[in-house]
Amino acid sequence: MKRTKKFWDIAFNGVTIPETHKTAIIRIYESYPIELMPNGICDPVYILNIFCKELGIGDGKSNFYKFGVV
């Protein structure tokens, strides 16, 4: 089930996130039923921070890098 544009606008508000990263977390969220994913407004960016930190494309503190650029 898709979340609304309003949900994503609020979730990404105030954070500069590369479009590729936004697309990735939206696709992850849309891959699972809504009741199986955390639904708090801060959860998508938190999860994205963890992914990016582990992949070396972010510092885990909402500072995201383009792929391969530090």
Structural commentary:
The chain is mainly alpha-helical and 70 residues long. It has helices at 5-12, 19-30, 43-55. Helix 2 packs across helix 3 (43-55). The protein is globular and about 30 Å long. The N and C termini lie far apart (34 Å). The model has no long low-confidence stretch (mean pLDDT 90).
List its salient traits:
70 residues, mainly alpha, 3 helices, globular
Give the gist of this structure.
The chain is an all-alpha fold and about 70 residues long. Helix content is about 45%, strand content about 0%.
Structural class: mainly alpha
Q: Overall pLDDT, averaged?
A: 90
Number of strands: 0
Helix proportion of residues, in percent? 40-55%
Question: Oligomer, anyone?
Answer: single chain
Secondary-structure topology with pairs:
Blueprint (H helix, E strand, L loop, with lengths): L4 H8 L6 H12 L12 H13 L15
